[in-house]
Every structure is written in structure tokens, then in C-alpha cells.
Amino acid sequence: MRCAIVIPARMGSSRFPGKPLCDLAGKPMVQWVVEAAIHSAVGDEILVATPDREIVEACASFGARAVLTADSHETGTDRIAEVAQLVEADVYVNVQGDEPLIRPESIADCARPLLEDASIEMGSVFCQCPESELGEASVVKVVTDAEGFALYFSRYAIPFARNPRAIAVKKHLGLYAYRRECLRAFANWPPSPLERAESLEQLRFLYHGVRIRMTETGPSGLAVDTPEDAERVRTILGG
């Protein structure tokens, strides 16, 4: 099967304008993400999807392919759905452009179920949620069924510990793998009530009956949402 890794990135972040091109130890942030995608060894094609020519030019400077997409997309998934109309693949993997510390192994873990089983429509990954993050609304949690498919995603610590907690809370990591048909359908569905309530676009897929195969992977690295996060990442990278 042919796999395309797509990295959505845009300059217009409200909390950190221009963050895909912020310097991290001598490289723009998006370059770190591209390099992690390369090292995952699952992408037949790796490209950045962006509405900004500055990002296209920056990618060209370090040898990465980028495609211009519309500036009206509400979610990264919408942006990847546009790319899926331009780039032929069996599986598309969404790797966020603000994850410079993403583990290549996690990208491979996300893609593998779809590459090995043509019946799986969509995949994602999780790790064990640290106790310190259980109450953090910015940390998304997931519960799964007996076959490892997602039952629900929430910003709350689910399942609720009414009784002593018998199972660990699973922290969802924002990596996704999709079939082309899934992306096409997503772009035509309006946001679902669950999605609006939690501000989690993956709930649109569950609402419409798409099963999401979850795979356990290693802990996530720090994502960059603010200039302060970028400074922390520079310290981790030693630059």
C-alpha cells in the first residue's frame, strides 16, 4: 500500500504567529517534523500542507515538498482532505506541524494497522496518561473496546473513577491515519454535536460510525503552542 505522510502547518496561530518557522536549534520547527516523518520509514511520500507561501519556500530550502492549500480550512483534517484530492495514496498519515519532538516510532505505530489490514478505515495512537495530566483539559483521553477501537475521546479523565481505578487512563496523541474515502466523507460532514462540545474533530468520525483503531506507543514529546514552549524545546534539543 502507498502511504503519504502529510504535515499541516500554517503561519496564523493565534497564540504563536509564524510558529512553523520558529528557529529550534538551527532549524525551522517544521523541518524537525519532516525529519521525524522520514525516519519513521513508512511514508512513500512526505509533504507539508500549508496556506502560506513562506512555509512552501522554507520547505524548498531544506529539500521538502510542500503544497499550497486553501486558507479557509477549519481543521487540519480538512487540509489533509484537500491534499488527498491532489496526491494519490492508500493511506494518509496526519502529523501535526507543531510536534518537533514527535517520535518516528509513533508515526509508524499509527500507520501500521492500516498498512497491514485493508479493512481498517482509520487509526491513531495513545500512551499511558501521567497522573499529573489527568485533570488537564488540553490533554485528550481515549477509552477503547475489547478489539482496541476507540469508544470515545474526551478532555475529561475517562473512565470516571467512581470506584478505585482498575485500568490506566489512556492519553490520546494527535496522530491519525486515514483511508482516502474517510477523508472525503469527513470534508462533507458538518461538525457533529460531540465535536462541538469537546472541540475534538476526531469525534466527527465516531459520530458517523467510523471505527478508529488505537495503538499503544511511547510517550509524546512537548508540542509547541506558545513561544515559551519553543524555548523549552530549544533547551531539550540543546540549542
Task: Write up this protein.
The strands form two sheets. Strands 1, 4, 5, 6, 7, 8, 9, 10 and 11 form a nine-stranded mixed β-sheet that branches. Strands 2-3 form a two-stranded antiparallel ribbon. It has helices at 29-40, 53-61, 76-86, 104-116, 180-188, 193-198, 202-207, 227-237; strands at residues 3-8, 23-24, 27-28, 45-50, 65-68, 91-94, 122-128, 141-144, 150-154, 170-179, 212-216. It is built from eight helices and eleven strands. The chain has one domain: Spore Coat Polysaccharide Biosynthesis Protein SpsA, Chain A, CATH 3.90.550. By secondary structure, the chain is an alpha/beta fold.
| CATH architecture field | Alpha-Beta Complex
**How would the global form be characterised?**
globular
CATH topology: Spore Coat Polysaccharide Biosynthesis Protein SpsA, Chain A
Overall pLDDT level = 95
- Kindly state the number of beta strands: 11
N-C termini distance:
38 Å
Largest sheet, if any? 9 strands, mixed
- The first-level CATH class is given as Alpha Beta
Low-confidence stretches: none
Number of H/I helices: 8
Give helix and strand order, one letter per element, not per position.
EEEHEHEHEHEEEEHHHEH
> What would you report as the Rg, rounded to the nearest angstrom?
17 Å
Number of domains: 1
Q: What is the fourth-level CATH superfamily?
A: Spore Coat Polysaccharide Biosynthesis Protein SpsA, Chain A
Structural class: alpha/beta
Instruction: Report the sheet-strand fraction.
Output: 15-25%
Q: Helical amount among residues, as a percent range?
A: 25-40%
Oligomer: single chain
